[in-house]
What we know:
Layout: H1 3-13, E1 18-22, E2 32-38, H2 47-58, H3 61-64, E3 68-74, H4 76-82
Parallel strand pairs: 2-3
Antiparallel strand pairs: 1-2
Helix pairs in contact: 1-2
Amino acid sequence: MDADDVRELIESNLEDAEATVSHPRGVDDEDHLAATVVSPAFEGESLVQQHELVYDALGDHMTEDIHALELKTYTPDEYAEQQ
C-alpha cells in the first residue's frame, strides 16, 4: 500500500485529520511507513487512544497491507506548538 493511499484513508476516516505519510529514512520496504497525523479528534485522548483512532481509520489495512507504522499524533494546538 503506498503512502498516498494511507494518507487518504486516514484523512477520510478520522475527523478533520491532516496526515503526512512517507517511508522512514533508511527503510526500502513498501510495508513500513511513518505518519504524522493532526486531528481535533485527539483532544482529551491518551496517546494510546490517539493511535487506536488512527488504526481504526486504517481498518483491515493495518493488519493486511501495512507491516509497521511509525506514528506521531497531535491535536491542532499541540502541532502548532511544535512549529
